[in-house]
């Protein structure tokens, strides 16, 4: 039984995917089970939206 991949770190998005060679910050190929997925992109978008909503307006 294989263990799940480690959690993503910000520096992970500066390198190509080790499995499918997708460019940094881009979705991996559909067959790739180790890289950045649509679910990851959706979670990132939700986190960014939540952070944007909590920041005070710029002056």
How would the blueprint of this fold be written?
Layout: H1 38-54
Report on this structure:
The structure is a single chain. This protein is an all-alpha fold and about 60 residues long. It is about 30% helix and about 0% strand.
Number of helices, where a helix is a run of at least 4 consecutive DSSP H or I residues: 1
Instruction: List low-confidence stretches.
Output: none
How many distinct beta strands?
0
What is the radius of gyration?
14 Å
The chain-level structural class is: mainly alpha
Describe the structure concisely.
It is built from one helix and no strands.
Protein traits:
single chain; 1 helix; elongated; mainly alpha; 59 residues
């Amino acid at each position: 039984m294989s263990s799940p991949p480690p959690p993503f770190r910000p520096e992970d998005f500066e390198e190509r995917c080790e499995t499918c060679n997708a460019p940094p910050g881009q979705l991996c190929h559909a067959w790739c089970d180790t890289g950045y997925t649509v679910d990851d992109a959706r979670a990132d978008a939700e986190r960014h939206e939540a952070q944007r909503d909590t920041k005070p307006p710029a002056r």
